[in-house]
Each structure stands twice: as C-alpha cells, then as structure tokens.
Write a structure and sequence with these properties.
608 residues; alpha/beta; Rossmann fold; 2 domains; two-stranded antiparallel sheet; 65% helix; rod-shaped
Amino acid sequence: MSLTPELQQLTILAEIDDLVRDIRRWLNDAPPWAPARRNRSLVSKILDRVTCLRIRLESPLVVATFGGTGTGKSTLVNALIGQEASNSGRQRPTTTVPILLVHPDIETTALGLDLSQFHVKKIDAPVLRDLIIIDCPDPDTSEAAEFGSNLARLRAILPQCDVLLYVSTQQKYRSARITEELTDAAAGCRLVFVQTHAAQDSDVREDWRKSLAPEYQVPDMFFVDSRRALTEQAQGQRPSGDFGRLLELLTNQLGTSRRVAIRRANLIDLLEEALNVCRANYDRELPEITKLQEILDQQRKKLRDTLTNQLRDELLVNRNLWERRLLSAVTNIWGFSPFSAVLRLYNGLGAFIASFSLFRARSSAQMALIGAVQGARWLKSRVEEQGADSSLERLASCGITDQQLQESRMVVSGYVHAAGIDAEQFADRRELHHLRHQAATVEGQFLGDARRDIDELIEHLALQNCSAMTRYRYEMLLLLYLGFLIGRIGHNFFWSSFLAPILGQADHPEPLLTVDFYIPAIIFLVMWSAILVLSYTWRLRRGLSTKIHKLAQSMVVTRISEGLFPALDHVCQSVISDDHRLTELRERTSRFRRELADAVGFLGGQLR
C-alpha cells in the first residue's frame, strides 16, 4: 500500500527522530577516552541543527552563491531577481558584506538567521517567493579566516544555507583554493553548478564535470550569460538558454514541495559527514588502545606465571602431605573392609609402631616420656599440615613485590597516556596504594582458588580410585591369600587333628601347626599386603602428580582474569564497544541517506 505524501513525510521525520535519539544515547554514554569526548562534541553540535530543522521546516530555502573573485556571482544574483540589487564587478571583490535578498511577504525575524551579519534587501521578485538568496563574499580574497575577513564571514554563513550555487568560469574552475573551501562548504548542502560569462568564455563543463566527478555528484551544469538574461528580463522577455533552465529549477523544483526533502537530506548528509569524521578519528586512535590491551595481557600473563610457578613449587614440595590426605580420603570413602584396614594401618604405620614402645614402659616416668614423644610426633604432623597451608599463604604475602608493581605501573603508564585514557591511578607515578590494594585482591582470589582446587583435586582422585571395580580387584587379591591361610589353618585345626580320626578318615590325628608355619605365613601376608598397598599407593601417587601439574598449568589460563589493572581493562572494552556502536550508527545513517537521495537527486552533492 502506497503512503500519502504527508504520511510519508511524517514517517521519515519519525525515522530521523529515532536515529537522533540513538545518537544522543551514544553521546551520553562516553567512555573515559579523550578521542571519544572530542568526537562527541562535534556530533553534538550537528544534532543541535535538528531543532533548527524543525523550526525552519516551513521556512523558504536559503540559496547562497559560492565561487571565486570575478566569477560573476553578484551579476548572476541580479539576473535571477531581474533587477540590480547587488553591486557587480569583474576583477575586484565587490561583495564584502553578505546581501540577504528576501520577498517582502516573508517575515525575516522568523528565518532563524542572525540578521546582523547581512545587508537585508526586500525585493518583490517571483524567484524569491519560495527562496531566500544570499550573495556571499569571495573565499579567495583572504588567506586566513581572521575576524572580519571575507572568508570568516563566508564560513559563518554557509552552515545556514540549504543550496549552494557554485559559480565558476573558464579561468577559475580549477582553482585549488576554491576547491578546498568547497569541500568544507558542501557538507550538509545541495549543489547547483553554474559556469558564467557564456558570451566571452568557452564551454568547459565537460572538463569541469570530470574534475568534480571523483568527489561530487553532478547531475547537471548550467552555462549562462547573466548580463544577457538581465537585459532580456528588462525587455519583458523570459530568459533563454541555460539561464532559463536554471531559473525554472530555482522557481519550480526548489519550491514548497521539495523544501522538507532538501533540508532533511542536508541534515542526514551533515550527520553522516560528522560520523565519518568520527570514524576516521577512531581508526587513527584505536591502534593505541589495541597496544594497551596487548600490554595489559602481557602484564596479566606475567603475574599469573609468577604466582603459578610459586604454586607449582609449593605443591610439589608438600606432595607427601597431599598423598597422606588423599589416602585418608580414600579410606573414609572405602569404608570397613580387609584391604581398607591394611590401608589404614599403612597410613598410620609410624604412630602404630611407636605405640608398641608403651609395652616397654616399666615406670610412670617412662610412660610420661613415651607420651611426650608421641605428642611431639602428632604435633609435628599438625605443623606439617599447617605448613602446607601457610606455604600457599606465602604466595599472598610475598608473591607480588612493590618493585614488580612499580615496574608494571611504569610499563602500562606510557601506553595509557599514549592512548588518551583518563586514569586517576596514574596521576602520581609514586603512589602505589591502588596497585597494592588490587594486588591483594588478585592474590586473595588466587589463593582461594588454589586451596579450593587442591581440596577438589584430592576429593576427585579419592572418588576416582574408589570405584567398585578397583575395590573388588584389590579386595579379591588380598582375600585370596587370606582365604588360603584361613582354610589351611581351619583344615588342620578342625579336620586333620580332630574330626578325621573320629570319623575314621585318618588313623591318627595330625599335630597342630606350629610356629614354623605361622611365622612364614605372617611374613608372606605382610609381603603380599605390602605389594598390594604399594601398587595402590603408586597408582594414587601417579594420579596425584599428574593432577598437580595439570592444576598448575590450568592456573595460567583460568585464574586471575582481571590482573592488576581491571579498570583499564574495563575502559578498553568500553572503547571497543563504543567503536562498534559508532560503526552501527554510521552504517544506519548511510543507509538512511541513500534512501533520501532519490528525492533530491536532481541536485548535486558530495559523494560518500
């Protein structure tokens, strides 16, 4: 379903409002980065014109002349309105104060222009019914835009113009100075290209078009004789040739129906130009942010490696303690069984052997002495366990020295200032308070992770080595010998020496087994149990060593994600996110500009 012109206009204005609202959100969400602030200041000034657009939406279009000295701008203006309204001259600049030509029916105070900058003339001319024409000063009569110069006046006027009549001649169309000023002036304006002095100069429009083609859209060019057109109008004739086409363009095609389309296209063009400038500035400054991120990654990796190497050394030094903890965890999970009893005996073998010394005590003094020795052994075991924990705590107390902090700070500081990031912690190079606080936080996180992972590692290994298949295998191997031993003793005690003679199965009872049997049997039981225990503990030790190495290696990747400079990491990420938002806004604005371009395609403009 096709939309009515009024509804289509409201739809486009709603899209502009939505785009402006998103851009304002982007403006209000600036990261602490100097380029972001500078570029937002530029875009903010452009958005101020949105308000002016709504105020001037129904106001006549502002058409201004633009061109070098002696190109006939004032003569062209006189010909357009059909009378002498502006002084004209060929060689010297005759227009020093901008002349504002307006129809008497138009209220000048409602135009939104600073009338103090202009010499206002009210003229009843047909072309001025829907237009306001400004005869501007020349841009090439002063080298710098000093206050009060023609160039300064021109630059103050151009942002308020909707259409520029770019006037040139055979001698001026390749002027580098004019081309440079046009590049700045054409942003946010439509262009009409006019070659004057048709009675004297050759037609250079094709060559002029080729020189403009790389940077400008040039749908049409006009080759006019302004003096002849003025004479024809004085005689009551309609101007002929290209001047007639130019007058028809200004009178009809730039009328009320095209007014809104031209202004909104100009606004989107100017907005896209501002976002393109921001994009170029970001592209120039972002490599410094990338370098800073790389340095932060290096410092973070260096910190992680330092703590991880210390952790690995401490874990390996206390490996025997972790093995005892693991064996205790295994026996707790295993429950009560013959092999678990052997494991408990092995785990507490030192205390078990030492307890036999109690049987050698002959007095209370000896009992007290043996008790003191046993207490010392228990205390030593507790000290070893606490020493293992304190070895981890030493990482938190001496893992990161002030010298390392200062070195990291000095390395990062240069990149922070080069990137233009606002960072208060780098204002005083000697102040390490913030870094010490962050280092303590990082070390605490690292220590907590290490302790938790060791406990989880022991628990995981204990469960892994207490599977039903593992327990069944070791229990059966131990019970094979125990079964043989018990069977042999039972056969001798119940059958060979007692029941067999009674039942007539033997002529005389066999003697009971002597110590010569029990001593080797016990020795072989101890040897068999030792073989099984050593096999099982070797399995535990191998798994524990592997897990310790993997734990230390995993620390490099999974621990200490923030490092010493989490605020800088956050700023870098916010800058990257801001860059993505800028890209999205720029692409959205470009698509919108292309959609609006068809409505004003009959006018020239800058290429994107």
